[in-house]
Every structure is written in structure tokens, then in C-alpha cells.
Amino acid sequence: MVGKKSDKVSRSKPSVATPKLLSGGNPQIAKGYGDTPVQAYIAAMPGWKSAVGGRIDRLIEGVVPGVRKAVKWNSPFYGMEDDIWFLSLHCFTKYIKVTFLNGASLQPLPPGTSKHPKVRYLDIREDTFDEAQFVEWVRQASVLPGEKM
Fold first, then answer.
1. For 71, which DSSP code?
2. Please, how many CA atoms are within 13 Å of residue 32, restricted to the half-sphere of its CB?
3. pTM for this model (two decimals)
4. What average pLDDT does this structure show over 39-54?
5. Cβ count within 10 A of residue 125
6. What is the C-alpha to C-alpha distance for residues 26 and 136, in angstroms, rounded to an integer?
7. I need a surface site. Which of 14, 64, 134, 147 has the fewest CB within 10 A?
8. Paired sense of beta strands 32-33 and 68-72, if any
9. Half-sphere exposure (CA, 13 Å, Cβ side) for 134?
10. What is the predicted pLDDT for the residue at 56?
11. What's residue 17's pLDDT?
């Protein structure tokens, strides 16, 4: 019949959109709590950063059993309870920036300074990740008071 619409329904799976990379290569991931949005962020990290991001995530889980996770402001956050965070990650063109939200209390101090007196940064570049020192900083940071965000 002319003009009759087909009764066929497409059974193909909808395509999963690749997350947009913002300036500097940071993945744009919707806000969410738990492991799922954090794993989506890690999977969307460009190039070598995805493997290192996965390693960072596994190290934090190993040091801090029961760690809470969320993606807020297109960055993964880690804490001891929802909305109280001790660490976050952010991708830049040539490195991953780890933010220790109470990093001024860590020993030794992480190398990156901040305008905020409590915050310290660690920039992880390709092939420059000192896992042993990172694990020690995570251990220390996880028992300090976190930041409510």
C-alpha cells in the first residue's frame, strides 16, 4: 500500500556516545555518586592517562577500604563519606593533576602549591608516577578531616 508506514521496529542497540573532552583533555562526565561515573571518567581519559587513572583508582581502593567516590565538576572525588572529600583528579593536556584537599598536612608535602593554604597538588606526567609515595599520601590524607563539597 502506498503511504503505509512500515511495521518494522529497529532492533539495533543505540550508540553509546563518547564523552566530550573539554579544554586540556578533561572528560565531560555527568555528576554522579559511586564507582560507575568514576569508571566512566577513567575510561574517557585520553591516551596514557586512562591506564594511569585506573591505577590511581585501584591504589586508592587498596589503601582506603570502603572509599566513597563521585564525579563532580567533571572530576572524580574520593572521600570517607559522601560530600566529604580528601582527593580529586583532573586531566590536563600533558598531565593528571591530583588535588590533596588537605595536602598541607601531608609529610612530605606534595610538590604543587595552591592559592588555598590547605591544598597541595601532585602532577603526574607520563612515566613519572611514584606509586609508593602516592600510596603514603593517600593513606595520610584519608585519615585527615576532609573538605565538604
1. E
2. 11
3. 0.85
4. 96
5. 13
6. 26
7. 14
8. antiparallel
9. 23
10. 98
11. 59
